[in-house]
UniProtKB/TrEMBL annotation:
<dbReference type="GO" id="GO:0000976">
    <property type="term" value="F:transcription cis-regulatory region binding"/>
</dbReference>
<dbReference type="Pfam" id="PF00392">
    <property type="entry name" value="GntR"/>
</dbReference>
<dbReference type="InterPro" id="IPR000524">
    <property type="entry name" value="Tscrpt_reg_HTH_GntR"/>
</dbReference>
<dbReference type="GO" id="GO:0003700">
    <property type="term" value="F:DNA-binding transcription factor activity"/>
</dbReference>
<protein>
    <submittedName>
        <fullName>GntR family transcriptional regulator</fullName>
    </submittedName>
</protein>
<dbReference type="Pfam" id="PF13377">
    <property type="entry name" value="Peripla_BP_3"/>
</dbReference>
<keyword id="KW-0238">DNA-binding</keyword>
<keyword id="KW-0804">Transcription</keyword>
<dbReference type="InterPro" id="IPR036390">
    <property type="entry name" value="WH_DNA-bd_sf"/>
</dbReference>
<feature type="domain" description="HTH gntR-type">
    <location>
        <begin position="13"/>
        <end position="81"/>
    </location>
</feature>
<keyword id="KW-0805">Transcription regulation</keyword>
<dbReference type="InterPro" id="IPR028082">
    <property type="entry name" value="Peripla_BP_I"/>
</dbReference>
<dbReference type="InterPro" id="IPR036388">
    <property type="entry name" value="WH-like_DNA-bd_sf"/>
</dbReference>
<dbReference type="InterPro" id="IPR046335">
    <property type="entry name" value="LacI/GalR-like_sensor"/>
</dbReference>
Length: 386
């Protein structure tokens, strides 16, 4: 049996079908007789060495095929031979709705988005089929196809638009889906004025502006960027930094703005040395981990943080746990997820009459020790409201 750490929570489409086929065969062999209740999810998943999410998808497939039945508040049972198959008729109007949720990752940024989605859907009596694309376009395509085959009633999608050659073409193609959908933390990159896509996203550029405005209020003028490339939000953050720097009269000295796909320790050490040589007194980092690592290298180069170098991070995933707690832009992840789920439920209820929503939520700026404002204010922690 695999430990939870060893299990792959969200595997490509064929895995759940393999599990469904194994359960189907065991039922046919008499492991569970007609009318018998299947073990609870955790026990059954452990016995098959799969994650609960993979098991749920497999059982959902068996429900659709009429092999098993779910009974509200009771569990899952092998369908008696005289019971009508679930697939023989359309679900009744009061049937529990199943919503597909496709995210790029289940380990960073998106868990809190998913929490917001699940809370709203659970309260509405809807089920969730959750899958991860792992930032792989092939897996993304397979998971989306599997969700459609399983019979989801609606979709909440975080597509990997930044990896596509024609992201707008992909978004346009989503209109052919047979069920309503809402984009989450994504929007059409080059939409027509009447683009019908409903989306909910964080105003990333607004968050960057808030961070730079805070640094300027503390007296910093030479501000650098430790940026990223090829992530879902890297271009939005970089453009937001450029715009904020112009509006706030930031002095961008040579070598102050650097972006990379991955920041190696040696590269961060070089950047810290450059801050000393170029008189850069504050740095905005796209990512908590890069910001925490930069602080280590800055100290090795004789820079006190925040005394000589102020640091502000973007994401607020692990910003509070470091030796120097990081001031951070904190996207409203759970709120993005919950609002996207609410809009999808409205679309399910209203059909083609549902209006298109284009929603941006402002992030907060959580002030901690790394920017110096906490010491100046004489407080431990504060939040700049959106």
């Amino acid at each position: 049996m695999k430990s939870p750490e060893e299990k792959e929570s969200f595997l490509p489409g064929p895995k759940y079908r393999q599990v469904a086929e194994r359960l189907r065969q065991e039922i046919a062999d008499g492991t569970w007789a007609a009318g018998a209740q299947l073990p609870v999810e955790r026990d059954l998943a452990d016995s098959l060495s799969v994650s609960i999410n993979t098991l749920r998808r497999a059982v959902t497939q068996l429900v659709a095929d009429g092999v098993v039945q779910r009974r509200q508040g009771a569990g899952t049972f092998v369908r008696p031979s005289d019971a009508p198959p679930a697939a023989a008729a359309q679900p009744p109007s009061g049937a529990r709705r199943l919503i597909g949720v496709l995210v790029p990752s289940t380990t960073y940024y998106y868990p809190r988005v998913v929490d917001g989605i699940q809370r709203v859907l659970r309260d509405a009596g809807a089920g969730v089929m959750l899958a991860s694309s792992k930032y792989d376009l092939g897996i993304e395509s397979g998971e989306l196809r599997a969700m459609r085959e399983t019979g989801v009633r609606g979709l909440l999608l975080v597509p990997n638009l930044h990896l596509m050659d024609d992201p707008q073409g992909y978004v346009d193609g989503l209109r052919e889906l047979p069920v309503p959908y809402v984009l989450v933390e994504r929007r059409p990159p080059r939409p027509a004025p009447d683009d019908p896509t409903t989306y909910v996203e964080t105003d990333h550029a607004g968050g960057v502006y808030r961070a730079l405005g805070h640094l300027r209020s503390l007296g910093h003028r030479r501000i650098g960027l430790v940026g990223r490339r090829l992530t879902g939000t890297s271009e939005l953050v970089a453009r937001g930094f450029d715009a904020a720097a112009r509006l706030l009269d930031v002095e961008l000295v040579e070598g102050a703005v650097v972006r990379s796909e991955q920041w190696a320790p040696a590269d961060l050490a070089d950047y810290a040395r450059h801050c000393t040589e170029a008189g850069i007194t504050a740095v905005f980092c796209h990512g908590d981990r890069d910001a925490a690592a930069l602080i280590v290298h800055a100290r090795r180069n004789g820079l006190a943080v925040p005394g000589d170098l102020a640091v502000v991070a973007y994401d607020d995933e692990v910003a509070e746990v470091g030796d120097v707690p990081l001031t951070a832009v904190s996207p409203p992840k759970a709120e993005v997820g919950s609002l996207a789920a609410e809009l999808l439920l409205r679309r399910l209820e209203s059909g083609e009459q549902a209006p298109t929503h284009r929603v941006q939520l402002q992030p907060r700026l959580v002030i901690r020790a790394s920017c110096g404002a906490v010491q100046q204010a004489g407080v431990r922690r504060s939040v700049v409201p959106a």
